[in-house]
């Protein structure tokens, strides 16, 4: 059976299932069957059915079996159908009634005892009964509830569940395994989070290093000038630069490749590297360019002479053009 829009329970349009319950007053054997979708609705119906004066508020609902205070909707929804409730008005205290089935806890020895502490101390019995009805509800138990059942003495839990101590010991071992698995899962999630954070941090560091490397990959120290130079200018470092600065005619001591690099170098960058002015730098570049041109001309001339000599002096063994013999007319 379902109801929509129960007072004090569900939001407008929300549908909740009704739970059948049994209500009675304290020290009374007369019980009333009611159905409610939430704890507040059950409390309101208790006031109406049991004729409780609302001036005696607050009205407290407790389990008739052991006096556990029920003040949470989630706990109420976990209780089985036809659970017996006792409505306490004002400062009334729950008292044992043998009509509750003979399994109730003994009545409080002192009326000043804190009911909240009593309910918390017997909470494990409600959880145990829940497991007895449906063992699969283990997955719904919180870690606190699991630990509570594990800590209960085996003999007491066996008595509550009406099982042998061996079976209950196995149940507690299973509960411990579930608790351990949850702890392992939590630690695994934490380790995974730390691993992902480390990867993210490492990626950030590598990215910065790559950016830094890209920024300085084209730079070199040209006499501590720190000027960015091209690949050809980097080739001029040290040996070539020292030759340009120290030799009276450096173009004569440099190789063809070095001459080409000097001639093609950026005048401003080369001037800074040599600590010269632009005019002096351009002069030495022009000298290197002329020297390179002279060397190329010499090479070309040498190749021409070799070709001419090869045509005039064939190698031994090469076939000679036979001369045409004169016809002997005699």
UniProtKB/TrEMBL annotation:
Gene Ontology biological process terms from the UniProt entry: apoptotic DNA fragmentation; negative regulation of apoptotic DNA fragmentation; negative regulation of execution phase of apoptosis; positive regulation of apoptotic process; thymocyte apoptotic process
Molecular-function GO terms, alphabetical: deoxyribonuclease inhibitor activity; protein domain specific binding; protein folding chaperone
The ranges of region (Disordered) come to 305-330
Give the superkingdom in one word. Answer: Eukaryota
CIDE-N domain sequence ranges: 17-96
Places the protein is found: Cytoplasm
A single Gene Ontology CC annotation of this entry is: chromatin
The UniProt keywords, alphabetically, are: Acetylation, Apoptosis, Coiled coil, Cytoplasm, Phosphoprotein
Cell membrane as a keyword of this entry, yes or no, is: no
Name the coiled-coil region(s).
154-202
A Pfam family name for this chain? DFF-C
The UniProt subunit note reads as follows:
Heterodimer of DFFA and DFFB.
- Cited function: Inhibitor of the caspase-activated DNase (DFF40).
Q: What is this protein called?
A: DNA fragmentation factor subunit alpha
Look up and give the organism this protein is from.
Answer: Catagonus wagneri (Chacoan peccary)
Give the classification, highest ranks.
Eukaryota, Metazoa, Chordata, Craniata, Vertebrata
Q: Which gene encodes it?
A: DFFA
């Amino acid at each position: 059976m379902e109801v929509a829009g129960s007072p004090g329970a569900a939001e407008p349009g929300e549908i909740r299932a009704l739970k059948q319950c049994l209500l009675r007053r304290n020290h009374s054997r007369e019980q009333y069957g009611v159905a409610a979708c939430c704890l507040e609705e059950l409390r309101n119906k208790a006031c109406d059915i049991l004729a409780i004066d609302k001036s005696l508020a607050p009205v407290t609902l407790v389990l008739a079996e052991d006096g556990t205070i029920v003040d949470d909707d989630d706990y109420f929804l976990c209780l089985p159908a036809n659970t017996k409730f006792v409505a306490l008005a004002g400062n009334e205290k729950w008292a044992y009634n043998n009509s509750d089935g003979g399994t109730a806890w003994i009545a409080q020895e002192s009326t000043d005892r804190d009911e909240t502490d009593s309910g918390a101390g017997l909470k494990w019995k409600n959880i145990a009964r829940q497991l007895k009805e449906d063992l699969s509800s283990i997955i719904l138990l919180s870690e606190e509830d699991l630990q509570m059942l594990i800590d209960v003495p085996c003999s007491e839990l066996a008595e509550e569940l009406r099982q042998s101590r061996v079976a209950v010991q196995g149940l507690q071992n299973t509960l411990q395994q579930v608790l351990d698995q949850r702890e392992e899962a939590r630690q695994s999630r934490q380790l995974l989070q730390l691993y992902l954070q480390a990867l993210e941090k490492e990626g950030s560091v590598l990215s910065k290093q790559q950016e830094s490397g890209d920024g300085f990959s084209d730079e070199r120290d040209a006499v501590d000038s720190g000027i960015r130079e091209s690949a050809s200018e980097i080739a001029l470092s040290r040996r070539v630069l020292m030759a340009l600065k120290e030799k009276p005619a450096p173009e004569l001591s440099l190789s063809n490749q070095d001459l080409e690099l000097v001639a093609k170098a950026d005048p401003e960058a080369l001037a800074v590297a040599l600590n010269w002015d632009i005019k002096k730098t351009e002069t030495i570049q022009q000298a290197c360019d002329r020297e390179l041109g002279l060397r190329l001309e010499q090479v070309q001339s040498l190749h021409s002479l070799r070709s001419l000599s090869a045509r005039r002096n064939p190698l031994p063994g090469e076939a000679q053009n036979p001369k045409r013999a004169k016809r002997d007319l005699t």
